[in-house]
Amino acid sequence: MPYWTEGEEHELMDLLQQGATIEALAQHFSRSPEAIRLKIRRLGLAIPEGKKEVSSTPTPQQAALEPLKPTDDLISMEEALKMWLAVIKRLNEPGITGLELKRLRLILMSLKGYAVVQADYYLRLRNLEEEIKEFHEHLVEEFTQERDQAETDEKRAFWQQRIDELERDKPWDQPSDFHVWARRMDLRDRTPVITLPRRLGHRSRRR
After folding, report:
1. 70/162: higher pLDDT
2. 95 and 126 fall within a common domain
3. In 3D, which of 8, 23, 26, 16 has the Cα closest to residue 47?
4. pTM (2 decimals)?
């Protein structure tokens, strides 16, 4: 948006004295109504009040809002990123109206917040499962020692049954969206960084 010239400022003050509305000023100076109001405030002038049409139809803000209902399923991180990319592609396309631009910006902000919350949730869940897995392995080790030290077949069968029950109950072995995301994070953290030797770098620069 270009800066206001001194001539435009005087013209704006003259038009305000003549009773021009914000809409007329915005059209005259090819600027948004918000820019016109901001300039009027900076000049220390009173903003003209526009005529408001009285409507008997309640606006969405006046209507009673129903409570939000939780969705049945969470969208995955990959789905959220695909939605993010779809919004970016739409922003690069021509013919976007102001209302659609605001809507796309709200979607981007919502997706960003959702990704942050979901990532934090996944990290907490992964840490919790690691603790449960460690405790599970500790129990299996303890039960195995009890089984090996049992004096009767009945006690050995009892401890073996407890071990079998623990081995069957391993939620971290079940495939889920969380585990796919967690494995990707682990792979990223464990991928070594490959650096060239200094001698090789010196030789390439000499060449």
Report:
1. 162
2. no
3. 16
4. 0.38
